[in-house]
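User: Quick sanity check before I run a bigger batch. Here is a single chain. Can you write out its predicted 3D structure?
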Amino acid sequence: MTAETADTAAIPAKAGPSLGLLRLAEAVSIPVGALVVSAVLFALFLLAIGKDPLQFYQLIWTGGFGSSFSIQNSLQRAAPLILTGLAFAIPARIGLTMIGGEGALVLGGFSAAAIAIPLVSSAVPPPLTLLIMALTAVVTGGLWVGFTGWLKYARGVNETIASLLMSYIAIAIMNFFVEGALRDPASANKPSTMPIGDAYRIGAIPGTDVHWGFAAGVVLALLLWVLMSRTTFGFAARMTGGNLRAARAQGLPVGWLMVVCCAIAGAAAGLAGFFEVAAIHGQANASLVAGYGFTGILVAFLARQNPLAVIPVAILFGALAAAGGVIQRRMGMPDATILVLQGMMFVVLLVSETFYGRLKIFQPKATGERT
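Assistant: Done. Predicted structure follows.
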């Protein structure tokens, strides 16, 4: 027997739980632990200001999942969060920290409302009008964030700063036109574009009060999971995100991958803007700047940039938003209470990132040693 054969024979046939199971347990346990720690810290905050933590969390459950109405309200509020969560998660898979989902949502929604003005006035059939609005929002959002990805690759511009600044520019563009050339004269108190009208609004999923944006978000999350986990494109994107230098050495089209991932992200956020206009507001105005793009970052962080995990996490945050009104009425607390809780979650999640790969419980253990 050679030394190599002896070494091989000395390796145990079973070395404990598989690496895949350990990684899955780690990916689930650390975010859940971060949520628990956030809940405890916020409970201490509530005690410090003289409020009952048990009542607070009970009201979150009641307002988010306590009735059929609450569940549907949570799902409706989750719709834009699924799409903006994907807008952060997809670039993150390739190693980019894009926080421009808010701008793409706003600009996508505004472009959809703007293109609807001549279509509605010309009595174009509603299905065709809505299709054109959706395509306009998707293309606008995709080009907006895709340009940020191009800046990163071609000019070395920091994508986080660039995407944040592009968001402010997008909001400024919307305000410029909404308060100027495209302003509806009837919108005296709140500058808005012309309303698209009830005939051009997107209805609810049959049997529910939840608009079709939620279904679109779920379907898109499934498609993007397949794209990023089961295709050569997704493998190339993950390889680029894991080691940019190695990806270049293997001849992968790094620049193209970056731009495409960013364009997909912008398209998802733009689609969220379309549904906000076509299903919720019926026109473009300052209500589009609701912070969904930034909450989506927290959703994607908690989901570990997994498109499938984005769905339940977005529903959780939709439930938090849905419970805000109940908490305000029952406990006399301001609307910003939920934002404080979300901020605390974000900080704890950032800290929890340092535990990945460091906890011994999630490290593979061998049951034998080489001789």
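Residues 1-15 have pLDDT under 50 and may be disordered.

User: Great, the batch can go ahead then.
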